[in-house]
Amino acid sequence: MMRALRFTIATAFLIAVPWIVAATVPGQQRYVLHVLIFTALYGALALSYDLVVGHVGSLSLAHPAFFGIGAYTAALLATEARWPFAAALPAGIAMAGLVALAVGVPMFRLTEHSFAMGTLGFALVAQIVATNWVDFTRGPLCVTGIPKPQLGSLRIATLPGFYWTGLAAVGLVGLLYHGLTTFRLGRAFHAVRDNETLASAASIDPLKYRMLAFVIGGAVAGGVGTLYVSYVGVLCPGELAVSLSVNLLVMLFLGGVGSLRGVLVGSVAFTALPEILRMAPTWRMVIYGLLLLIIVIRAPDGLEGVIRRRSRA
Amino acid sequence: MALLEVRGLTKRFLGITAVDAVDVSIEAGELVSLIGPNGSGKTTLFNCVTGYMAPDTGRVLFHGRDVTGVAAHRIARLGVGRTFQLVSVFPRLSALENLLTFLQQHQEESVLARLVRAPRVRRYEAAAVERARMLLDSVGLGARADAPAGSLSYGQRKLLAFAAALMPDPGLVLLDEPAAAVNPTMINQMKEQILGLHGQGKTVLLVEHNMDVVMDISERVIVLDHGQKIAEGSPEAVRRDPKVIEAYFGR
Amino acid sequence: MSDLLEQLLHGLTLGSLYAMVATGLALMFGVVRLINFAHGEFYMLGGYAFWYAYAELGLPYPVAGLAAAAAMGVFGLAYERGVIRTILARTWHVQLIATLATSITLTNLAILVFGTQPKEVPTTLSSTIVDLGGVRMAWQRPLVLVAAVIIFAGLEWFVTRAKLGKAMRAMSQNREACAVVGVDVQRVALATFGLSAALAGGAAALVSPLFNIFPDVGALLTLKAFAAVIVGGFGYVKGAIAAAFLIGLAESLAAGYVSYAYKDAIAFVFMVAVLLVRPQGLFGRRIGI
Fold it and tell me: Cα(A302)–Cα(A294) distance, rounded to whole angstroms?
């Protein structure tokens, strides 16, 4: 009862944020909402990544590629073929999911380090293709003029509108994440992650579950990519940079890999903090790199682990 | 028809022939031990039979059905349970959850039924929990059902792994060194458990180094040396076989 | 015809670079079973060290080159002591993420310190183009190849004759046995990292006159070196060297005859193809360096 009440209040609060922001920091409205939109999108992306890394234990570095594939699919369909958002979004999701399926089959035949390197290589190749296939992707000239989403008569063009869209996205992804990682499916994922040999002895097919997490994670990443380009309006090959994987890893490990709350906390900390601290991008990456290094060695459970240990003691 | 049949199984790694044209035939309900000096290929044979490795030549038949090279999870699904030489559990799950994990693939309700938690699903889940508790009690871990498996002692984890393998009620149980690295009380407990399985009509094949255990409980003993089967028969016959004595002591 | 010869020479130069970097990676994996994702950054930092010694301090080429190698050797030792030692006992996930994090930190520090503009370090050998029967090249290219061969020969002598080298080889084959017979495994691990980093630094000194130095150069290099290690059979140094030359040649020929823009994808495609067809690498799973 208490839990449902807290949840409702929290949701109401989150929905009311645009008005709260307008009331509390009127001059900074646009900026704050922009940061929040990015936080929501990153949160959804991080959750989709955590399915692969945190729950099934596959250290994939291919996620930026799926984000980019969804983004480019939607961007090109919207600008070249004038597809409406309602069609471009599922197309972005489907394309990313299909590529994940195609890439996953050979990749999962590799073990451990080779898998990580193979997925990294794929991500690098995806960026190379995006940069060089100028006829198709416009390369460094970027895809411009991506229209704002139009769902029937509803046009999402204002910052609060995008904020609510982002909120809905992270909410839906969170719901999906929860459903996939609890109950029997969650147990199967975790069995594969924690002891693949034993999982086989328990009749659980490791390949099937790794592929499932990988494809769903990739598809969701593609969906986030679609939302991202609809908001930003421009898409350049730099969006597929491998450093996105590092950012995601920081979010996951900072907040708590394998935990819904942890990953969301990590996303907020990662996106909001640097904005608050006004860090230059390069300094940001140095600090993230060091932070990730320290966290993964000293506190691999992240903030979530620290909180859990405190509450137990 | 034998329950498990291995015909001419050969497995090589890096120039070494770990298993060399081995034939094994095990009838339903038998309690057979597989022994041999270190490196004689016992665990490799186990791995080939249970699908963790594909043999280079030879066949593995389960209930007359060819399962050579079939993946481990599918062989497990056919009703083969096994434990591992290095005791293997899911450390983050409780003992109870460990056992439930072993049953879930055998529970065939549709995703939809599970989503709405139809009464039939709830009955299955309750039955699964009940079975798990029963098995845990039978190995003496009833009190630790909710403890994380990682916090159990080595011997307790061995018992847990044993109970988990039995959860889906397999017809064939393969145990890899069940008596290794545990104290004498635990060894007796293991012997009782294994005899218990035999009493239930299950077929048991175990790899074991502890000769007392082997001689005590086995109906039949198979001896491997350097990947080849060098002897087979009753425990007493094998004990006196000069080839076996030479394999163990003649070097 | 001369076109083809030029491409082949370029391929051998690339191959030498990849081989030197891959050797370090294979050594580290062979001796301590760890994949160092920051290995490309050893090359990058070595390049900057060389630039500083040669272009800023004005040291003669050989001295600057050795200085760069030595500087990276020291860095490698510090890296092993500071980072690697804390993650040696951890899972490969932790090792991967930790070394990846180091890679990002070093790359961005380099951007902060040196800026994103590539540094050009031309030497007399690299900037004078000679024409040998239709083939146009700079003497730096054969120098790279010759130096690489000398280095590999030296390495072979080291692991067969020198005490430390023999210990490295022994550790790569059976680590537990080494600890039992009294080999100082920590010291050997430390030395391995120093050596690997120095190799990368030396490679940078040899190759930087031909290819510019910039902060991001490490990422692709790590991937290609890793591809060579995988294709050659994990931990088998000679295999990695052979594979690295194959990749270098394939890349050069692809750049010349197929498409320049996609040349970087060659190594990756090669790697995945080999892994799918022959997962134990082209030369099988040989143990040991």
Answer: 10
